[in-house]
Amino acid sequence: MSGTAPAPAPGWYPDPQGAPQARWWDGTRWTEHVGAAPAYPGAAAPARTLVAVPPELADGSNVPAVAALSWGLVALVLNPLLLASVVAVVRARQGARRADDLEAFLLPPRGRGMVRAAYALAALGAVVSVVVSYAAWVFVLS
Predict the structure, then answer these.
(1) Domain extent listing, the chain
(2) Do 98 and 49 form a contact (C-beta atoms < 8 A)?
(3) SS3 for 14?
(4) Which residues does residue 30 pair with via DSSP β-bridges, in sequence order?
């Protein structure tokens, strides 16, 4: 048995420098990520307070937002039956939820810009698809 205590689990803890904020401990070191200090009942805060972050959020990425943006770009080029636009909107909604989840755990809410762009591209792709389909239909009938 070694004389060293195990490191605390990754999570949000009161800032070790005494600032009135929470700082992220990644399991090995303090990171630059800071957030609002959690509200504690009573006057004194405990020495360590852990806010459990689900493992799927710990890296702070927003894969659904990236997928939504990709599908939005596809919707501009290839959008049969508006399928790519629908998939882009669904993935954008998932990306928006992921950004909300990240923000709830005091992590940077990454992906909000990609989500907005995906919604816009999905709508534009749908309009382009309808106009091209209509033009093709008119051309075939004439």
Answers:
(1) 11-53, 61-141
(2) no
(3) strand
(4) 25
